[in-house]
Design brief:
disordered N terminus; 0% strand; mainly alpha; single chain
Length: 143
């Protein structure tokens, strides 16, 4: 479960943002993507989240808040893609909440693992992520 979860979150979590220029100014959005990148990662960038449900709850509160902010401020050109990707983060968090953020217990429960797998393989997410990354490269200087 740990490896799959790490892959899921790494895939779903949105890329950070550097500097770039275009006809439209996406500076604010790039900053939000950078903020999202800073709080995300395999376990919210805090390895203690793997074994400490309270740390996991705290880190995922930051991840979901940043994801919602990114979604709510996404430019129209990537709004649908960001919304889809963020929906996976929020759905994952719902499973975490239901299981009191206990990743160790979740890894032992087949039903929970299947639910996580279903979110990680949701139709369209991989394509949305590719389009988002292309947008980030073009407009935020991410390479």
């Amino acid at each position: 479960m740990r490896k799959r979860f790490a892959l899921v979150v790494t895939t779903l979590v949105l890329a950070g943002c550097g500097s770039g220029s275009s006809a439209v100014d996406y500076t604010e959005f790039c900053g939000l993507a950078q903020k999202m990148n800073a709080v995300s990662g395999t376990h919210g960038e805090d390895p203690a989240a793997i074994t400490d449900p309270q740390v996991m709850a705290d880190t995922w509160a930051k991840v979901t808040a940043a994801a919602k902010e990114l979604r709510d401020n996404a430019p129209k050109i990537v709004k649908d893609d960001v919304t889809l990707m963020v929906s996976t983060i929020l759905d994952m968090d719902a499973i975490f909440q239901k299981n009191k953020y206990d990743l160790v217990a979740m890894s032992k429960d087949e039903k929970t693992r299947k639910a996580v797998d279903a979110i990680s393989s949701r139709d369209g997410v991989a394509d949305a992520s590719k389009r988002f990354n292309t947008f980030m490269e073009k407009n935020c200087g991410v390479s």
